[in-house]
Amino acid sequence: MTKDILLWDQTVFKEQEYFELDFLPENLLHREAQMRSLKFSVSPALRGSTPLNACCRGAPGTGKTSAVLKVFSELENATQKVVPVYINCQLDSTRYAIFAQIFKKLFGYPPPSSGISFKKLFSQIAKHLVEKKRVLIVALDDFNYLMASKEADEVLYSLLRMHEVQPGAKAGAIAILSDLTLDMARDLTPQVQSVFLPEEILFPQYSLEEIKDILKYRIKYGFMQGVISEELVDRVARYTAETGDLRVGINMLKRAGLNAERRASRTISEEDVERAYEGSRYVHLNYTIRSLKKEEKALLKCIVESGKDEMMSGELYDRFREKTGLGYTSFYEMVNRLEGLKLVSLNNTGKGVRGQSRLVSLMYDPKEVGKRIDV
Ligand SMILES: Nc1ncnc2c1ncn2[C@@H]1O[C@H](COP(=O)(O)OP(=O)(O)OP(=O)(O)O)[C@@H](O)[C@H]1O
């Protein structure tokens, strides 16, 4: 019996970092095809040529950032002649801020804090690339933030036409997007489209079996042997598949492990998993709400403000139109996108035309959704 009890200085974790959300695993299972496409896009840079541009698209938690970071780390290990720069556009959402990050990566220190003009910053970057014969590859994660702040055109234009200002300068861009409806052809200017022309790399949601494989890998390296049963792994995987976001499963495993430790147990129980889910399910909500457009948040807010957690589509549209002035086609597209992101569910009542009679229900407690919306 005592062998089941965990002493105060003992733990169920072998390597707890395997359950951190920013942990980059050695192998990205089930993303071989996407990694191959990414490598193909950047490969010209290894030969000193301009890389192909790329656009990685997929719902939150489908491995886009991880795949790009893995390819970047392989590039950095292979050569100093290719400089990959990762930008989180939520944190750096202006052209100046992005080029300041590029400068920092190239020179190893930030641009002068007294501030220099964009023109000067840009020309120092371009000169450096030519003089040192280095090729620049910039990943723009959460690219939708750049689109929203109207900076996307300027950033891509400056980056991809650098050679016109400084002949011989070579740079490529990888846009990372969790908004599947964002249409580059519609939302970027023709001048930018003509130089961007990205290779589309799609990241579909993981199947239940794929989720299990990925979670088992974390369990193998992250937990001591025998901490969680096969049956409970299945349960965690099923909860994860409901949102399609791997973060839910990874975070659940960590919380379940901590719950077991709190009970001084060497093994995770059903109850530990259920309690973990109560917290981890909001991990998906946090990340998904981050990826929404202002109008999509406004749409969710209409349901939250109604005081109910479900509304008939027609009534919801009336409120939405009052708030945003947008028409039915935009509304219809947005409701479908929110369903795709598993933030709402849609039930047909069989009456009305063009979806007017659908019941739109929030998948989360309205209070929890409301807390995370800031429109
Ligand atoms: N194939 C995989 N193998 C192992 N871990 C994975 C895999 N795909 C995703 N993950 C893990 O899932 C979590 C989310 O992945 P990641 O941040 O790459 O997703 P994303 O698609 O960029 O999400 P978002 O659009 O919300 O930024 C990370 O902790 C990552 O390590």
From TrEMBL:
All residue ranges annotated as the Cdc6 C-terminal domain in the record: 300-373
Nuclease found in the keyword field: no
GO biological process: DNA replication
Annotated binding of ATP, by residue: T62, G63, K64, T65, S66, Y206, R218
GO MF terms held by the record: ATP binding; ATP hydrolysis activity
Pfam families, sorted: AAA_22, Cdc6_lid, WHD_Cdc6
Keywords noted in UniProt: ATP-binding, DNA replication, Nucleotide-binding
Record keyword ATP-binding present: yes
The family this protein is said to belong to: Belongs to the CDC6/cdc18 family.
Functional summary from the UniProt entry: Involved in regulation of DNA replication.
Name this protein carries in UniProt: ORC1-type DNA replication protein
Annotated organism of origin: Methanocella conradii (strain DSM 24694 / JCM 17849 / CGMCC 1.5162 / HZ254)
